[in-house]
């Protein structure tokens, strides 16, 4: 299946978790990939892993910290140098920060979460959108979270940054829809990635697996999400099969955010 034949997609935070799963999903459907991460070693391993499932995929790696504006400009420039265009952008890199009550929250960690999750997403939009405008459009998927539509105890900066991602998604959608650029966000619930495994360690350091089981029992589907669940949604949102959806934040959480 080659729905992304001759299409180029940038994926940030691609070395593991949701970025890696989406990279595999779009590579399997024929995309050229520019994968970006600040963990250079893990990024090379990810490239090999993607190529093991999609041997024909053309992939470049660019090491960048998305909170550094020049590094973002550089990953966009490198992608255009290599492939000439950008059709899809999965603006995914993000961190959770440390869990703590808001009055005790470490201000340095607070600012770091905002720099990566909010400014990193903004810089991506700032440099990718002009390239898409030149080529008549494109598809963007930003990564918010259920923490972008609900509060989450002890995660003040994460929730602030992810609500901002949802807001920036609306603005990008209404400012650039006229250029054929469709911008949406996804709001994953708990998807079992390295980030979420780390969160369960913080919730129950003695028995993270017990924290995971308790959490899964709250979900209407009685399970956590899999990175592949999210990768497939992202592939659809980035594809030409998805039309006229713009400015939405789409929950992928087994329905958990509907619980009262
Ligand atoms: P992860 O920690 O498993 O993977 C994140 C990847 O992003 C890593 O490879 C990391 O090196 C990279 N990264 C982090 N900061 C970076 C930076 N400044 N510059 C470049 N690369 C950076 O996390 P994940 O669970 O895959 O999360 C990916 C995105 O999805 C994040 O934005 C996260 O907030 C969001 N999200 C995840 C879940 C979940 O349940 N896993 C739920 C909601 C939202």
At a glance:
The chain is an alpha/beta fold and 260 residues long. The protein has 8 helices and 7 strands. Strands 3-2-1-4-5-6-7 form a 7-stranded parallel beta sheet, sandwiched between helices.
Radius of gyration: 17 Å
Shape: globular
Residue runs with pLDDT of under 50 for 5 or more positions: none
The biggest beta sheet is recorded as: 7 strands, parallel
Strand order of the largest sheet: 3-2-1-4-5-6-7
Please provide the ordered H/E string of secondary-structure elements: EHEHEHEHEHEHHHE
What is the CATH homology-level superfamily?
NAD(P)-binding Rossmann-like Domain
Mean of all residue-level pLDDT scores: 97
State the helical fraction: 40-55%
CATH class: Alpha Beta
Bound ions, cofactors and other small molecules, one mention each: nicotinamide-adenine-dinucleotide
Overall CATH architecture: 3-Layer(aba) Sandwich
How many individual β-strands?
Answer: 7
Tally the helices. 8
CATH topology: Rossmann fold
> Hey, roughly how much beta strand do the residues contain?
5-15%
How would you describe this structure to a colleague?
The termini are far apart. The protein has one domain: Rossmann fold. It is globular and about 50 Å long. Helix 1 runs parallel beside helix 2, helix 1 packs across helix 8 (227-238) and helix 4 runs parallel beside helix 5. It is an alpha/beta fold and 260 residues long. The chain has a 7-stranded parallel β-sheet with strand order 3-2-1-4-5-6-7, sandwiched between helices. 47% of the residues lie in helices and 15% in strands. It contains 8 helices and 7 strands. Strand 2 (32-37), helix 2 and strand 3 form a beta-alpha-beta unit. Nicotinamide-adenine-dinucleotide binds next to helix 1, helix 4 and helix 6.
